[in-house]
Design brief:
The complex is a heterodimer of chains A (308) and B (633). Chain A has 308 residues and is an all-alpha fold. Chain A has two domains: 40 residues, no CATH class; 260 residues, MetI-like (MetI-like fold). Helix content of chain A is 65%, strand content 0%. The chains are: A mainly alpha (308), B alpha/beta (633). Chain B: InterPro entries: AAA+_ATPase (IPR003593), ABC_Ni/Peptide_Import (IPR050388), ABC_transporter-like_ATP-bd (IPR003439), ABC_transporter-like_CS (IPR017871), Oligopep_ABC_C (IPR013563), P-loop_NTPase (IPR027417).
Chain lengths: 308, 633
């Protein structure tokens, strides 16, 4: 082993357990998982769990937005342009008296689920194409990957805009537009992962053991791809949140009265100097969503990345 | 021995303790090491993985990994500078001016984006000097090689480049961490010679870290045997090898395979560890594995004290016969007695006589070889006829550029017409260096690599394979039980029946049944290789293919896995094909030995004949490079 790997000496190794561990331990070191000593949580792991908890809280907020919102988001609720902190309207109201808290909660719901849907569909389409290409190789690999390259070569945002412009401005078309440009990344990553796993000795050992091809793919390859896929996808949710907000800022989201974070920011930009909270609050919500999503992605990577 | 800041020594370690942290768990890696490295001395640090030898090297360089939060006690002085508490710029100066380093893997320790010459010049500061150094370390055509990149050189040449860089700053101390482990045996010998030449020419000291006593024995003046972060025994190389005074050294020497190890007897192994970490800390760390342990060993740590008298007259004689270098080292030390270079120290409660008496105790004489190898009358288990395998390399723009851009893609002929017949029940070893095609042959027989031409016929029952890296040959997310059960699927057994087979297979490889519920990451290297073997043999295959299954294991563990394979072979009457780069392993595992080089078989014959009377020059060269100790057999 190379000297640059100090971990060498810490792995409880072999039958000749010659490692010397400081703390006296009762359990036999023979079956201790090297990376995961029992009962030990590093600070990094604890923080990761806190962020995961935030992620879950955010999802719950999105799910129960309708119950939590005090007012109907499209009907005027009280006075115009009330500042945050007004009794009854916690975050204030906009220029036609709609409750900003309610609009933001609904907006979070739309953004969050839209992002999850886009990432999930990308994962499914990309995962399928990547796995097929990686497992079969040869001409199918070439065909699928050149097709993927074609999509990768297109400027994603512009294509999404074009699709929405062609099909009409509504949420479904926006999602469709983003989903169409989003899967190729996953296809690439998953194909690479499948290929590298398929060339590992454990897959060869399974082949020698007479295991069927389907079984090899589902038992010996795909479980190894899942951690990478989850990490990639969770790091990506934040990007989709931002892209969706950007598109709706440009007017490519839901039509006018519907609550949407990007559109609410854009439409009320005129009041930035007079009643700044009206455009800023939905903007902050976007910031919060993408921040939590990105931190969540890192947390997921910390938690499952170490296992591989 | 304890002369902390001796000006004469190249490096001086005293009372060194070190603990490192990993995943929140702190381990005591070094537990009180005293060591003087004298000028012009080659000292071999020998130990198994986990003994702390590599960390000791890092500590000497002042390069302990920050993220492991090292806690160091005692002192390390290199050229008079404190490597523990010194200022970063002082340490850097020592590393630049006083230390040279050679790592195990020269590919990863050279910068792949820099030309060789530029890398050497970084240390030597001028190109002419670099050229001179490159020639000095035995790089032929140094001018030509000056402008190439590391990947364009062979492993041996890369290691020479590392050596050139190591001596470029005219260091007083070279630290070589397993410099030969990744190299072929013929190249190993050259690199060891090179280290000795560097010492002779530049007068520097060398700390040679290795897991193999014989490698250390080849060039070291003194050998220190490390066990669990302490020195178990230290002394002049010949004394340690020929008259060991610590049971662990004896165990290491006995479990080491050599060309004279009896073929038909079970190989000797060290006892497995049974003490918990806490128990090991209390007394002698080796006590639970030591056949000579007495209650005292469990209770109190033995101090490192001098071996009072030389063991026997004959031993001393051989010591000076084999050790011309020892005299050089002694000469540099002035009259002070006992000088470290000649003192032989040990940490053991038992007396020297007890330990040395134990060297000569007999071993069980039960033969492990099958009673008879089936006669040639039967259909062969493996018939390989005129096999060729050609890999085509996808060439980049550089490859195509030559010859006007329309040449065919580069081809590597891994096998060039190999024919071989193996009888049922026979064991054949295939020996060769990297690139000889030995593994490719095995993979074609196993059906993992398609043949370009020629044919392979296997007897009914098929082939199973045991891979070099047991860890990666097991699916990480499946439990051992799941993997074994998968092998039984074609038999369509009922659940209790397959459970019975799995239990039986685990018992056969000597692992507890609870292992079935465990994933590979929770097993040790030796245990993983056993599981791989269980998977291969749970349904007895006609042919068992072994691709260097022990080359990643410590000597004693390797011996226990080899024992197991031979036992299985006898029990299941399997045909075994064993690929290895190690001639002593090949001799033990094969009834016949096949020697391969450059994709061709150059010699085939009964093991004893090939080893004792090699006919092909290549086999002779291989044999000549095997490091041997030649005692304790």
């Amino acid at each position: 082993m190379s000297a640059s790997d100090p971990n060498e000496i810490l792995l409880p190794p072999l039958e000749t357990v010659s490692t010397v561990t400081g703390a006296p331990e009762v359990i036999s070191p023979r079956f201790r998982m090297p990376g995961f000593p029992r009962g030990q949580r590093t600070p990094g792991r604890r923080l990761s769990w806190v962020i995961i908890a935030l992620l879950i809280a955010l999802t719950l907020l999105a799910i129960f937005a309708r119950l939590l919102a005090p007012f109907d988001p499209v009907q005027p609720a009280s006075g115009l342009n009330l500042p945050p902190g007004t009794p009854g309207n916690l975050l204030g109201t906009d220029s036609i008296g709609r409750d900003l808290l309610s609009r933001t909660l609904y907006g979070i719901q739309v953004s969050w689920f839209a992002a999850l849907i886009v990432v999930a569909s990308g994962l499914i389409i990309g995962g399928l194409i990547g796995t097929l290409a990686g497992v079969f190789g040869g001409w199918l690999d070439n065909l699928l990957m050149r097709f993927t390259d074609l999509f990768l070569a297109l400027p994603g945002t512009l294509v999404a805009i074009a699709i929405v412009a062609a099909l009409g401005y509504n949420l479904q078309n926006t999602l469709l537009g983003i989903a169409i440009v989003w899967w190729p990344y996953y296809a690439r990553i998953i194909r690479g992962e499948v290929k590298s796993l398929a060339s590992r000795p454990h897959v060869e050992a399974a082949r020698l053991a007479g295991t069927s091809r389907t079984r090899i793919v589902f038992r010996h390859i795909i479980p190894g791809v899942i951690p990478t896929a989850i990490v990639t996808a969770s790091l990506d949710i934040g990007n989709v949140v931002l892209l969706l907000a950007g598109l709706s800022f440009l007017g490519l989201g839901q039509p006018a009265p519907a609550p949407e974070l990007g559109a609410d920011t854009a439409r009320n930009l005129g009041q930035l100097l007079t009643e700044p909270w009206i455009p800023i609050i939905p903007g902050l919500a976007v910031l919060m969503l993408s921040l939590i999503a990105n931190l969540g992605g890192d947390a997921v990577r910390n938690l499952i990345g170490g296992r591989r | 021995m304890l002369t902390p800041s001796d000006d004469r020594s190249a490096a001086s370690i005293s009372g060194l303790t070190l603990s490192l942290e990993r995943d929140g768990v702190r381990s005591n890696v070094l537990r009180g090491i005293d060591l003087e490295v004298l000028p012009g001395e080659i000292i071999g640090l020998v130990g198994e993985s986990g003994s702390g030898k590599s960390v000791l090297a890092l500590a000497l360089m002042g390069l302990l990994p920050e993220r492991s939060n090292p806690v160091v006690g005692g002192s390390i002085r290199v050229a008079g500078v404190d490597m523990v508490d010194g200022r970063p710029d002082e340490l850097r100066a020592v590393r630049r001016d006083e230390l040279g380093v050679i790592f195990q893997d020269p590919m990863t320790s050279l910068n792949p984006t820099m030309r060789i010459g530029a890398q050497v010049t970084e240390s030597s500061r001028n190109a002419a000097e670099s050229l001179r150094l490159m020639s000095a370390v035995g790089i032929a055509d140094a001018e030509l090689r000056f402008t190439v990149f590391p990947h364009e050189l062979s492993g041996g040449l890369r290691q020479r480049v590392m050596a050139a860089i190591a001596v470029a700053g005219k260091p007083s101390l070279i630290i070589a961490d397993e410099p030969t482990t990744a190299l072929d045996v013929t190249v190993q010998a050259q690199v060891l010679d090179l280290l000795r030449e560097l010492r002779d020419e530049f007068g520097c000291s060398v700390v040679l870290i290795t897991h193999d006593l014989a490698v250390a024995g080849q060039i070291a003046d003194r050998i220190a045997v490390l066990y669990a972060g302490r020195i178990a025994e230290i002394g002049p190389a010949a004394d340690v090898l020929h008259a060991p005074t610590h049971p662990y050294t004896v165990g290491l020497l006995r479990s080491r395979l050599s060309l004279s190890t009896p073929r038909d007897l079970e190989l000797q192994t060290l006892r497995p560890e049974t003490a918990s970490a806490g128990e090991r800390m209390l007394g002698c760390a080796y006590h639970s594995r030591c056949p000579l342990a007495v209650p005292e060993c469990r209770a109190e740590q033995p101090p490192l004290v001098s071996v009072a008298a030389p063991a026997t007259a004959t031993d001393t004689e051989t010591a000076f016969e084999n050790e011309p270098a020892a005299t050089t080292a002694t000469a540099t030390v002035t009259a002070a007695a006992p000088a470290p270079a000649t003192s032989h120290d040990r940490a053991c409660w038992r007396s020297v006589d007890d330990v040395q008496g134990f060297i000569h105790t007999g071993v069980s004489a039960a033969s492990v070889l099958p009673v008879s190898v089936s006669g040639a009358a039967r259909e062969p288990a493996v018939r390989v006829t005129d096999l060729t395998v050609t890999f085509s390399l996808k060439t980049g723009w550089r490859g195509r550029g030559r010859g006007g851009g329309r040449t065919s893609p580069a081809e590597v002929r891994a096998l060039r017409g190999v024919s071989l017949q193996i009888q049922p029940g026979e064991a054949v070893s295939i020996v060769g260096e990297s690139g000889s095609g030995k593994s490719t042959l095995l993979r074609v027989i196993g059906g993992l690599t398609p043949a370009t031409s020629g044919s392979v016929t296997l007897a009914g029952g098929g082939a199973q394979m045991v891979f070099q890296d047991a860890g990666s040959s097991l699916t990480p997310w499946l439990t051992v039980g799941e993997m074994l059960r998968e092998r039984l699927l074609p038999l369509k057994l009922s659940r209790p029946e397959s459970q019975k087979r799995i239990d039986h297979a685990l018992t056969a490889i000597g692992l507890p049944l609870t292992v079935a519920r465990v994933r590979p990451s929770e097993l040790s290297g030796g245990q993983r290789q056993r599981v791989a073997l269980a998977r291969a043999t749970i349904i007895a295959p006609a042919v068992l293919l072994c691709d260097e299954p022990t080359s990643a294991l410590d000597a004693s563990l390797a011996a226990s896995v080899l024992n197991l394979i031979r036992e299985m072979r006898k029990e299941l009457e399997m045909t075994v094909l064993f690929v290895t780069h190690d001639l002593s392993v090949a001799r033990l595992m094969g009834d016949r030995i096949v020697v391969m080089t450059h994709g061709e078989i150059v010699e085939v014959g009964p093991s004893a004949d090939v080893i004792e009377r090699p006919s092909h020059p290549y086999t002779q060269a291989l044999l000549a490079s095997v490091p041997e100790i030649g005692v304790l057999s």
